[in-house]
Write a structure and sequence with these properties.
The complex is a heterotrimer of chains A (about 100), B (about 80) and C (about 130). Chain A has about 100 residues and is mainly α. Chain A has a domain at about 35-95. Chain A has 4 helices and no strands. Chain A has helices spanning about 1-20, 40-50, 55-60, 65-95. In chain A, helix 3 (about 55-60) packs across helix 4 (about 65-95). The radius of gyration of chain A is 23 Å and the shape is flat. Chain B contains 3 helices and no strands. Chain B has one domain. Chain C contains 4 helices and no strands. Chain C has helices spanning about 1-25, 30-50, 85-115, 120-125. Chain C is elongated and about 70 Å long. The chains are: A mainly alpha (about 100), B mainly alpha (about 80), C mainly alpha (about 130). Chains in contact: A-B, A-C, B-C.
């Protein structure tokens, strides 16, 4: 069974390595990932948000709704942990 | 973007990952996972992502390791594989 | 040929890390080992996205001496792409949230069955 799993994992890795052959190289300034929206963020950050740190200005200003969704995820996870652990303690005491 | 430094840290990261999944004691595995997170943090600093690096050092290597240790104290540290 | 390898060897090492995590998630019987494998898998994917952001000859995405200046002309090719950093910052925090819920479920499993091995749990369930 372990051999089957190992062959499966190696197949997936082989396909992914085949996929990297067409990718732009590491550190290529003309790669598609750094051509589309991020030049506007880099150029306008001091004019529109007055923050020198671009990561902060994108995190809290341009993509603020994204960060709000992230806080919702953390709240849900904390709530789930409290309900799971505390609920079972109370049930054990009643038994 | 310094290539030999990057290669050395990547090799350390792979060694830490293989050790963390093969060691039999769970507490040791979790400690090695913490070391793995710190190597990862060093690598992100070297790539220029400083904000991601200190988030990783505080959140994943700090709180993640503490959560793992709390879970192992409440359960058991022996494992068969 | 050697340039081709130098530009891509780090992608291959990230894929090796991802394969280690996937193998641990599939094969290991202990549940804590499965969670450790999930952690390694997520970190490898975050590493891949961060490496897409780097530019040759770029510095950190922080402007120097920029306070109070209105019309500052910024050359885009001097700074690393900051957008993947922001998205992966979110992904790291979500990673720790999933880790917390997984460990809480694991503690519940130990309270009910008294073990963390997958085959012993399956034997006790029948």
């Amino acid at each position: 069974m372990k051999i089957v799993n190992l062959i499966l994992v190696l197949c997936i890795g082989g396909f992914l390595i085949y996929g990297t052959l067409d990718m732009p190289g590491w550190g290529d300034p003309d790669s598609p990932a750094s051509k589309h929206v991020s030049p506007r963020y880099i150029q306008k950050t001091i004019e529109e948000t007055a923050t020198p740190n671009m990561v902060t200005s994108i995190l809290a200003d341009y993509r603020g709704y994204d960060t709000m969704g992230e806080t919702t995820v953390i709240f849900t996870a904390g709530m789930a942990c409290i309900l799971l652990l505390h609920g079972s303690i109370r049930k054990n005491r009643n038994d | 973007m310094i290539t030999p430094f990057n290669l050395i840290i990547l090799i350390f990261v792979v060694i830490c990952a293989i050790t963390a999944i093969t060691v039999k004691d769970l507490l040791s595995a979790v400690m090695i996972l913490g070391a793995y997170s710190f190597f990862m943090c060093l690598m992100w600093t070297e790539m220029g992502a400083v904000d991601v690096a200190f988030t990783e050092a505080s959140v994943s290597a700090g709180i993640g390791t503490i959560l793992f240790i709390a879970a192992i104290i409440k359960t058991t540290r022996r494992s068969k594989d | 040929m050697i340039d081709f390898i130098i530009e891509r060897y780090n992608f291959w090492i990230y894929i090796i890390l991802m394969m280690i995590g996937l193998y641990a998630m599939i094969t290991k019987r202990n549940l804590v080992k499965k969670v450790i494998g999930m952690n390694i898998f997520q970190t490898a994917i975050i590493l891949f996205y961060i490496s897409l952001a780097s530019k040759r000859g770029g510095t950190l995405p922080i402007l120097e001496h920029a306070h109070g200046e209105e019309n500052l002309t910024v050359d885009v090719s001097n700074y690393i792409n900051p957008l993947p950093h922001v998205l992966m910052l979110t992904a790291i925090v979500v990673m720790v949230a999933t880790l917390g819920v997984a460990l809480a479920i694991l503690i519940l499993i130990y309270r009910k069955y008294g073990t963390l091995e997958e085959d012993e749990i399956l034997k006790k369930m029948q």
